[in-house]
Write a structure and sequence with these properties.
Layout: E1 3-7, H1 25-45, H2 61-74, H3 81-88, E2 92-93, E3 104-110, E4 113-121, E5 124-135, E6 138-149, H4 151-170, H5 173-190, H6 200-215, E7 227-228, E8 232-233, H7 244-254, E9 258-261, E10 264-265, H8 268-281, H9 290-298, H10 304-316, H11 321-331, H12 334-343, H13 347-354, H14 357-369, E11 384-390, E12 394-406, E13 413-428, H15 442-445, E14 461-474
Parallel strand pairs: 9-11
Antiparallel strand pairs: 1-6, 2-3, 3-4, 4-5, 5-6, 7-14, 8-14, 9-10, 11-12, 12-13, 13-14
Helix pairs in contact: 1-2, 5-6, 7-8, 7-12, 9-12, 10-11
Length: 475
Amino acid sequence: MVSVTSYTYPTETENDNSQFQSQGLSQSLRDSIEGNIKAFDAMAQSGLLDNCRTLSKNASFREIFRSLLLYILDSLHIYRHDISDKLVSYFHVTPESANANYKTWIATTGMDSYIKIEQTGSDKFKVTDVYRELKGNSLKKESRDRDFSGRNVKEFIGLLSEHDVLEKYQLSNVTVAANALKLEVVNNNSENKRSFGVTDAERQLKKALNEQTQLTPDKLIPDDCSYKSDIKKLDVQEGEFSALLADASRHVGEGSSIISCCGVKINSTIHEFLRSKTMALSGHGGVRKYKDFENLFSKIVFTPDECSVVRNSLQKDGVEKKTRENIISCLSSISGIGNLYYACSQAFPVALDRGDINAIQASNSISSGLDSNPGLCVLLGRTNLLFADFSLHTFTQTHYIVKAEINEAGNDFNIANFIYRTYGEDYIHNDSVDDSLNERSAEDYRFLDDSLLPENDFRNRRRNFSGNIAIATYK
């Protein structure tokens, strides 16, 4: 039998157990539970946390969830696994209690609400319902708790523990980290609090994303993405690359971005050269023209001596000869250095967003919800990870930007990784006014000045861009 050791708050909905105390308890519970199961099922079938609409005018998902949980814990002999199985999957053990004797589980139940179960014994725990309520002209954080003990509690703890084991082996570290970040956002929303510094939850998610890509480097875009757009040509105007020099300096200099050349992650020798070179150009503000960028790139191509140092370092790393020479050709050319810069540009996610209705709606939903849910500020792109691969004539940029997918009702969300993939290739535009530089053959000046080669004539170099968006949602 369940023993309710304390009851510190009044009932919230007409479905709470207290209304049945003067009725035939068993039958009343059965009838109401059946009704709530139908409501729960209907919400689940409509998407629940994805694109659900609140089906009842009087009950939110949080209210239904709470009522069903209390039914399970309050009922005397009516233990409904068809309910508990639904509820348990929403609870996640907190990382700090995962290895403790007594654990804490939390289920987010809305944009600013969650239910916390804190175990206090083998058959005892406290249930705390945290939410916001309109008080006057503003939303105020509210919480209410109850202590439970008994057979049903012990069995429910067992179900939660079994679910923990399943999650440990079935959920990726990324999903676990995303759940922790979601809880942090929900908690901040409930407190009307905005997070200004990078939080531990953000760091852990970025770390998990990085580790995942190292395990599957050929799958920067997961197979199970909830959305993938078609690849299409990008229309990026010259003026949109105003931060091109600063972007490359930051991504190369900070060392948190994953940069490869000709498919090989750059080693410490190449990284140090590029860090110094990109920093040297970062002070050239105000550059807007393609030809001016190319002129600057020509000033930092790798010299023969630098190429020799790089070649030796690659040989020590065991990089095969053909790939070594491809890397050297790339680093010693204006086009290759330019492709590094474009591979680090922040302009492409903006351009891809502009042409995708799903991305536009996601960004608008977050921005419009900031006033009432300030915790969403961490999901405006500050957790991101860039992967750049550049070669002599092409580049690929894969940019992870953590955002949120908010449901249509605007009362719940999921953490989502918006993956922006951009492809670029350079070509020589044939409108040159002065072709005098190209009158001699490449053989004539091959060892004199590579900048005079037709492919290094920066005046007419152009690039084509294409790309697409994929969205990986974590639940």
